Fold this sequence. Notes:
This protein is of the alpha/beta class and 80 residues long. The chain is built from two helices and four strands; from the N terminus they run βαβββα.
Amino acid sequence: xKKRVLIEDSLTEVSQYLSKKGLNVSNLNKNNLNSCDVxxxxxxxSNIMGISNxxxxxxxxxxxxxxxxxxxxxxxxxxx
Length: 80
């Protein structure tokens, strides 16, 4: 089964890269936060989707300063 990754809308290139690597990638929104294996955020804001006190039970990867390949490798390591 493919691992499901939620990703912020601003990370289009990363999203395309992860899809090509075989991951099931969807856009991150308030309604699907817990229906994934991992979440990738841009790191531009200190909160997710404008909510600073949100609690997420899934691993969150900060994409700031990382290449698409770095993010992919971090997802693989996180989901081992």
